[in-house]
Task: inverse folding
């Protein structure tokens, strides 16, 4: 696509289909071109690559190795323009690192990668509930943050592995915790094991 100056605009694995071929292998099919456009600007190509990387890191285990393989193939397939596009991707990536990366978000709050005293950490931030009286909402939020920090500490004291709590800010509604590099949820781990077993039983790799 980029070799022909076509920008997808939403380059995530949700917009890719793995379609079976007659030889039993899978073929990648791109879908959802609602944000696509013709553009030979390397900045746009860099953003495309960065969006793909963020999508992989937030939803797939083993993403760093997978994305490295994708980038090697990208450079091989886009010999003419890959150097400039990859350089722009690195610039976009550097800018993106200065922003928070949301890992999970629910009704009560969000979990994202941030910093605590200059060190990379996991931040849990509780949302303000606008339907509640401000003073009541602040009181309830503070109580829940204190209770969560206390529960984490109690588990750690009992020998149950939990993230270390570096600190918390009741006014900003945040808890700062240890960040585990290249960790995956138990859900992703189990899904990966089941997927591996299914491939082994079917004789595919």
Result:
């Amino acid at each position: 696509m980029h070799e022909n100056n076509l920008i997808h605009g939403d380059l995530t694995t949700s917009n890719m289909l793995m379609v079976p071929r007659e030889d039993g292998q899978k073929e990648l099919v791109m879908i959802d071109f609602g944000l696509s456009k013709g553009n030979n600007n390397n900045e746009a190509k860099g953003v495309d690559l960065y969006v793909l990387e963020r999508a992989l890191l937030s939803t797939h285990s083993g993403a760093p190795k997978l994305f490295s393989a994708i980038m090697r193939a990208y450079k091989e397939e886009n010999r003419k323009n890959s150097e400039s596009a990859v350089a722009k991707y690195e610039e976009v990536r550097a800018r993106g690192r200065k922003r928070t990366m949301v890992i999970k978000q629910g009704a009560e709050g969000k979990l994202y990668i941030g910093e605590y005293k200059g060190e990379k950490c996991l931040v849990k931030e509780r949302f303000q509930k606008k339907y509640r009286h401000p003073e009541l909402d602040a009181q309830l939020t503070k109580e829940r943050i204190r209770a969560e920090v206390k529960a984490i500490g109690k588990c750690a004291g009992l020998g149950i592995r939990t993230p270390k709590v570096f600190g918390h800010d009741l006014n900003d509604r945040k808890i700062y915790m240890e960040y585990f590099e290249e960790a995956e949820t138990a859900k992703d781990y189990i899904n990966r094991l089941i997927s591996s077993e299914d491939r082994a039983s079917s004789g595919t790799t």
Notes: The CA atoms of residues 3 and 80 lie 7 Å apart. The first strand starts at residue 6 and ends at 7. Strands lie at 6-7, 16-20, 26-30, 37-38, 101-105, 109-116, 119-126, 165-169, 174-177.
